[in-house]
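User: Teach me something about this protein's shape.
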Amino acid sequence: MDIKQEQITTLHDLCVDNKKLVKTVSDVSVERPISVVMPMLYSEIKNNALENILYELNKCTYLREVVVPLAAKNETQFQQVKRFFNKVKIPKLVMWCNGPKVENLLTEIKSEGLNLLKYRGKGRDVWLALGIANLRAYAVALHDADIQGYSHMIPTKLLYPIVEPELDFKFNKGFYARVNLEKQIMYGRVFRLFLHPLLKSLVDQLGNEPDFVRFLRSFRYPISGEFALTSDLARDVDLPGDWGLEIGIMAEMYRNVAKKRICQTDLGFYEHKHQRVGKTDNEGLVKMSGDIFKTLLRVLIEADRIEISRDFLVALRVQYQRCAQDCIRQYHADAHFNGFNYDRHLEETMVEKFSRQIMDAGIKYLRKPVGTRIPDWLRTMSARKKIREELLDIVIEENKV
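Assistant: First, the predicted structure itself:
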């Protein structure tokens, strides 16, 4: 196993004593309360993975609470999810993020000059949940609700470097192998075939490595949805309101946290629900790649003052296609060596679709460079001081019924 250290500290699972980790987190949680945020869609209660997640979360007796930001179409769906979460024995709050009471509160804030209603999707749901979670916790871990093979060690590993006083990191990013050993398939396509070759292409195109690009390349899996952070950081992050969420969070950590207080942790092997590639720019992995690219452009302009133009995008697309082709050749060799199934034509087709996003999403960004960034909680609290407490009261009340 590769155990080298780079700009960001990497915590490898070489021979981790799971029981010791759990005991340490449990002991420390008395002084440093911790919570888990798990965003989900209503449809995910039909996913077999969620049953196991709830079973494993019940082993995390050290948690102050689990906050579940939910996107549901109506009261019936909300009530159904609440009943489903009765299986969780530790304290939990199901938060109906697009429900009428939350929407009414956000409408009131709009009259005070802050329009939060224009943001939709996972970004806003996570933002809302972090708002109430950081009221009662020292640290918060976040992970998705579709992890197959979930273990209670996932939140434990994410939280340990944050709450253990001897380490005292501020932010921890999880990484893992996106492969299915049973089906012998490689996943993680947006990272393998888009972001990874794109970052290398940016270095080749610019003739140097911007500091933010170097920061991202120090992470094994910078767009993973699993991370933990301290509550003071959770109050001070602007989040993108689209699929650029993970890159947006990385940008906020880059801007706000000393690199020596950031780490990444080996979470082993597991699978997520796999997104479809998408037939149009507004679907699946194609849309995801476009949103990631727009967020990346914004941060590069802000952090490294890179000048973006149509000519720059054309040249970058050429560089990207060459670099992605090299990656496909390498992945093919790796898959062949391991006896994995590898559809080279499918991977080539995905690269073609991703490369179009460099131009399409890039031009859209040039036309509207401001983007959709949800204000941090500090700004929101300056507009309405007790907004988090009001939000928490709504969620507690809705969970009583």
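Now, about its shape. The two ends are 51 Å apart (CA to CA). The chain has one domain: 9-400. If you'd like, I can walk through any region in more detail.
User: That's plenty for now, thanks!
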